[in-house]
Amino acid sequence: MPALEHILVVNAVLFAIGAMGVLTRRNAVLILLSVELMLNAVSLNMVAFAVYGHVDFGNITGIVFAFFIIVIAAAEVALALGIVVRTFRNRATANVDEVNLLKW
Amino acid sequence: MEDGVTATQVVFWILAVVMLISAIGVVTAGNIVYAALFFIASLAGVAGIYLILTVEFIALVQLLIYGSAVVILILFALMLTRARERPQALFGRSRPLGIAASLGLLAALIGGIVATTWTTPESSAAIQPVGLQAIGDAIFTIWIVPFIIVGVLLSIALDGAIMLASPDEDDN
User: Fold this and answer.
1) A40 vs B42: CB contact, 8 Å cut-off?
2) pLDDT tens across B68-125, in order?
3) pLDDT at position B126 over 60
4) The pTM is what?
């Protein structure tokens, strides 16, 4: 088995890459993809903690949390893509910096 | 593990490198469809790491929900917003700032991981595989109320997505 620290460092890198995508991309769908990368890093972290600790602590809550994260991410993707499609119909753009109706 | 690098560790590092390179491809690719394809590769890498961590159930859920359903949704959204037809800047003006902020976040996270003393199990025998039955027991006994709530949430969210994306009566 790989060491717990190595898994955590890999997940930290994945999380930072996702954050970079969220902060640098313009297209709403690509921002959503980067958010999914960050969610993946977090749920992988939880699974790692659960697998390495369930003998000592006697529960597998981290794995159940990863399952819930995946389900909620599916709901979030469906809703966010609905919003993107609706925004594209109203404003003819999928870029977040051109959707400035609330910008004063 | 006392005997240095094991086969599992080698596979883990290969998967991790593939996953991270694909993730970098997702956030830097110049073509939106390429970014979505890199995303599939990254998800497959994450599923492989789940397999190494002996949780086959989460790996299967990852491949079924993320690898197929979410990716198909995203490809449909890319088609519906016709992002391919108009070549345009894919990165915002604050790109250097975003890269710097994410590198700072990475430094903070790795600093925190390195500075913490983790109580890992001493022998590999302490890492028991988590069976499917244990996961099912946990979900359907302790976590049954959150499980039902998350099911209701999922169906409400999908209904809301259909309502959001369907055209209004007065659109045409």
Assistant:
1) yes
2) 888 888 888 888 876 555 556 667 777 888 899 999 999 999 999 888 887 766 555 5
3) no
4) 0.88
CB contact under 8 A, B164 and A70: no
Using an 8 Å Cβ cutoff, are B157 and A79 in contact?
Answer: yes
With beta carbons under 8 A apart, name residues in chain A contacting B74: 29, 32-33, 77, 81
Identify which of B45, B50, B43, B46 has the alpha carbon closest to the alpha carbon of residue B71. B43
CATH of the domain at A86: 1.10.287.3510
CATH code for position B31: 1.20.120.1200
Check if B51 contacts A (Cβ < 8 Å): no
Nearest in space to A40 (alpha carbons), one of A7, A9, A73: A73
Q: Whole domain around residue A63: which residue ranges?
A: 4-93
- Residue range(s) defining the domain that contains residue B52: 1-86
ipTM: 0.88
At residue A52, what is the residue type? Y
Average pLDDT on B25-42 reads 88
Domain count within chain B:
2
> Does residue B106 lie in a domain region?
no
E strands, A1-104, in order? none
B114 located within any domain: no
Closest alpha carbon within chain B to A86: B165
